[in-house]
């Protein structure tokens, strides 16, 4: 450990709409499965997020806007009063620790199961997830989703808007609409999952329509300065095959460029890729970039600091880190002074519930040995 402050633009303050951020490090949304079975956030979640309140911004984990949108067991929700009350305990704890939070709104689409939500998943087309899915009784084969009708689409758009209002009532500064990583909105963007021949399918202009309508409805509900959008160009997680990545994202960004959104968030951003550079040029507002650090392997020794600095130099405004924040509640301070990082422990502990691998990662202060108390001198 150097104990010498590291010179880096990551630690400079920044503005995000009306928010003043103390640094440019964002805690990325990380599914942790610590909510109750009915989606109500639990007290341990308040502890977890408050521990990480030194991040410039926390984007809280994927949270479902309606029942059918639930992905896995113990995923938080934001569609009834109990959910709002549970999240309010979390945001109060983070605010008391001088933190700021957005809430990610995620509808799983075909990434779901009747044993998780009680309902058959819905999707743009009846194309099942090409892998098994986690349920309360273990991994099961995925089911064929029900193709969404126009009425389903309209009601889902309305559910996102209501969820956004609920998030503000719960004390969040804003929301992030999740159109990445193979979930419902991403399924509409991709040729492999969207086989529709109506206004929500076919050419790029049709496939981006649902995402644009959701974002616009959410912005109308709570104000565009409180709304972010997350995308993952070219990512194939959850069996996604976009087919025309280089066309989808310029069209989507162009359709939303003048809406005044708080930010655009790019997953696994690569500053050397032309698409990243094109999106940066086309997007007039704040750009959050999540660097490519790999998944499942060890964290880089610097926690992603160098990769983040490269992205800032390439035009990003804020840098989102995931696993580094997961394992290091005081990540900002560790990066600032060049301190060693806690490694991410057993990946299965990430999703099993309880304190282990969740709230029990030590801070630097807790890791330092306490000085011995000298024996009293006898008189």
UniProtKB/TrEMBL annotation:
A GO term for molecular function: FMN binding
Needed co-factor(s): FMN
Keywords for the protein's UniProt record, in alphabetical order: Oxidoreductase
UniProt xrefs under Gene3D superfamilies: Aldolase class I
SUPFAM superfamilies (alphabetical): FMN-linked oxidoreductases
Protein origin, superkingdom: Bacteria
Enzyme Commission no: 1.-.-.-
Annotated Gene Ontology cellular component terms: cytosol
InterPro entries attached to this UniProt entry: Aldolase_TIM, OxRdtase_FMN_N, Oye-like
Bilayer-spanning residue ranges: none
Catalytic class of the enzyme: oxidoreductase
Domain NADH:flavin oxidoreductase/NADH oxidase N-terminal: 9-341
Pfam assignment, any one: Oxidored_FMN
The keyword ATP-binding is assigned to this record: no
Region (Disordered): 360-379
Family listed: Belongs to the NADH:flavin oxidoreductase/NADH oxidase family.
Annotated protein name in UniProt: N-ethylmaleimide reductase
Higher taxonomy: Bacteria, Bacillati, Actinomycetota, Actinomycetes, Kitasatosporales
Gene designation per UniProt: nemA
